Amino acid sequence: MIHSSDPKEITETILSWKSKGLKVGFVPTMGFLHEGHADLFRRSVSENDKTVVSIFVNPAQFNDPEDYAKYPVNTEGDLQICKEAGADLVYLPAKDTVYPGGIPSVELKVPHLMKNLDATTRPGHFEGVLLVLSRFFHTIPADRSYFGKKDYQQFLIVKDFAKALGFPMEVIGVDTVRSEQGLALSSRNARLSPKEKEEALLLSRALRLGENLIKQGEKDPAEVLTVMKDVLDSSSLIKIDYLEVLNAETLEELHILKGEILLAVAVFLGQVRLIDNLTVKVS
Questions:
Q1: Is residue 283 one of the residues assigned to a domain?
Q2: In this structure, which of 3, 4, 16, 33 has its CB flanked by the most CB atoms within 10 Å?
């Protein structure tokens, strides 16, 4: 496995692979990798001849400087996980390499998918995601890129963004990896206390109860929201950031539950913000 901080070397390596007819997959990450990331890497390895991983904590997508400063880093461990999962090339750029002269004052948006959820509770977040990806998609001209569906809104936004700007890359969403207890794997979980980790299980429990209610025939989004909110409110440690029942393709508000439905939640547990979601399809 090769790793480099030189964007020119990264691009030349990928183009040399593609000149031989090899298919290239790309998984962008912010490091502090876990099994959820490894699952993305393995998916890429199974569908492509070569797999590229980027590790870069992107300052442009943090609206809280303290959150950026606290983001965990473990480069040596990350490289080992990449190697074990079968990655061929790891891009480790410095901040000044990605943003020479500082973060530019431009805004990239996909307006119809940025009206709610994290787009409103974390202003500037997705603009920062799209900014860094616009640069990485040029540096890493892959055939496919892979995103975890735990960040479901991000997956939809990036997919639409890549299509709108004509990046010749298929954007693929991969299902969330969970612990045996149901907690969605996240780099932020490392900052939870044992008690907070236990309380965090209420997120997936609330989502599953909402899913079951819909499958049993409930058509009123308000009823589903009430049930899920009651579960989360049972913990004095949880502060709800948002709780939504939306159309899973457009992220529009639903008045009657039908089609493919997204149940999405974000909460604060102490100083740590967690998100989770699931989709359910009904006729």
A1: no
A2: 33
Range 88-115 average pLDDT = 96
Which residues are part of a known binding site for ATP? 30-37, 148-151, 177, 185-188
Q: What is the tens place of the pLDDT at every residue in 164-206?
A: 999 999 999 999 999 999 999 999 999 999 999 999 999 999 9
Binding residues for (R)-pantoate: 61, 154
pLDDT digits (tens, 9 = 90+) for 72-86: 999 999 999 999 999
Tell me if 37 is assigned to some domain.
yes
**Which pair of tokens denotes residue 91?**
């891009």
Which segments of the chain are extended strands (E)? Answer: 2-4, 24-29, 50-55, 89-91, 144-148, 170-174, 238-247, 259-269, 272-282
- 151 and 222 part of one domain: no
Known binding residues are: 30-37, 61, 148-151, 154, 177, 185-188
104 and 209 assigned to the same domain: no
Could you say which of 37, 112, 138, 255 is catalytic?
Answer: 37
Is 37 tagged catalytic? yes
Tens-place pLDDT, residues 43-72:
999 999 999 999 999 999 998 888 899 899
Give CB contacts under 8 A, 24+ apart, made by 5-11: 5/91, 5/92, 5/93, 5/94, 5/97, 7/91, 7/93, 7/97, 7/139, 10/52, 10/89, 10/91, 10/139, 10/140, 11/139, 11/140, 11/141
Q: What global pTM score does this model have?
A: 0.96
Is 180 a member of any domain? Answer: no
